Amino acid sequence: MNAKERHTQSIKEEAKRLGFLSCGISKAEFLEEEAPRLENWLNENRHGQMSYMENHFDKRLNPTLLVDDAKSVISLLLNYFPSETQNQDSYKISKYAYGQDYHYVIKEKLKELLHFIQTEIGEVSGRAFVDSAPVLDKAWAAKSGLGWIGKNSNLITQKVGSFYFIAELIIDLDLEYDTATTDHCGTCTACLDACPTEAIVAPYVVDGSKCISYFTIELKDNLPQEMKGNFDDWAFGCDVCQDVCPWNRFSKPHNESLFQPNESLLKFSKKDWEEITNETFNKVFKNSAVKRTKFEGFKRNIDFLKSNE
């Protein structure tokens, strides 16, 4: 086994030890196929008020602009599928936000992985990315063979599903590269048929500005009246296109203690959510991604859903 193979193997073993579901590696190079797709998506205003999507266009497509002399993009998946979900009579929170904010949980694991690489292999420079920098994480994960990008524009993995986070380490070390997998969506249109706001405007094309996740998290203005009755009781995020995906039959509960939800989150009824105070909000969502909406934003979402009834 040569050094490149040895390094690749030890990185993948360490990723597994840190609790990652899987690890795939790609050559750090310009994402040629993604460039026109991203450009069209932005030109068609599919990003709504998410103006940050327009920034750093070149960096999104070229990892060598993010890390000097980048050679490899290491993509990692971390399962967040919960063992228990909310009770039936409730406003819904997206499963990824049940526990502690994934940005911090994954950042720590990535730091450990980078430290391991530097200790085991030597002088390696790199940066960790968790969904907060201009990195097209789904494109890299697909390129690394971790799954394919489905008709709902999520990464999907055979026999695993799609309830996982994606993160990257971009490093200046040559490694063995994985190959992309094939698309297994076939003729299925479950996600297109089920989307409550018809945000999946065509197979593989999601209009971000029509997505319930966009409305309940990103949109800072009042929620549009014409969307009344279309939110399917989602108060933060939306899992519909994943819940109906046949591949998610294979989802298995995670074993990350930091992703365990506050008991109240699972037990709250609609009435409990309607009466939530700032203090309770801070307690239930301590260190949670739901904090992004702040109490006022969350209350706005609940009031909007309540007025549908």
TrEMBL record:
Pfam family, one: Fer4_16
Pathway(s) annotated for this protein in UniProt: tRNA modification; tRNA-queuosine biosynthesis
Residues annotated to bind tRNA: K220, N278
Superkingdom to which the source organism belongs: Bacteria
Active site per UniProt: D131 (proton donor)
Catalytic activity: epoxyqueuosine(34) in tRNA + AH2 = queuosine(34) in tRNA + A + H2O
Coiled coil regions, renumbered to chain: none
Residues that hold cob(II)alamin according to the record: R60, D131, N152, L155, I166, S213, C238, D239
Record InterPro entries: 4Fe4S_Fe-S-bd, 4Fe4S_Fe_S_CS, QueG, QueG_DUF1730
GO molecular function, one term: epoxyqueuosine reductase activity
Free-text comment on the cofactor: Binds 2 [4Fe-4S] clusters per monomer.
UniProt keyword Cytoplasm present: yes
Binding-site residues, [4Fe-4S] cluster 2: C195, C211, C238, C241
Cytoplasm as UniProt keyword: yes
Key words, A-Z: 4Fe-4S, Cobalamin, Cobalt, Cytoplasm, Iron, Iron-sulfur, Metal-binding, Oxidoreductase, Queuosine biosynthesis, tRNA processing
Entry's EC annotation: 1.17.99.6
Subcellular location: Cytoplasm
Positions that bind [4Fe-4S] cluster 1: C185, C188, C191, C245
Cofactor(s) recorded in Swiss-Prot or TrEMBL: [4Fe-4S] cluster; cob(II)alamin
NCBIfam families the UniProt entry points to: tRNA epoxyqueuosine(34) reductase QueG
Homology family: Belongs to the QueG family.
PANTHER family: EPOXYQUEUOSINE REDUCTASE (PTHR30002)
Function summary: Catalyzes the conversion of epoxyqueuosine (oQ) to queuosine (Q), which is a hypermodified base found in the wobble positions of tRNA(Asp), tRNA(Asn), tRNA(His) and tRNA(Tyr).
Name by which UniProt lists this protein: Epoxyqueuosine reductase
Annotated source species: Flavobacterium jejuense
Gene for this chain: queG
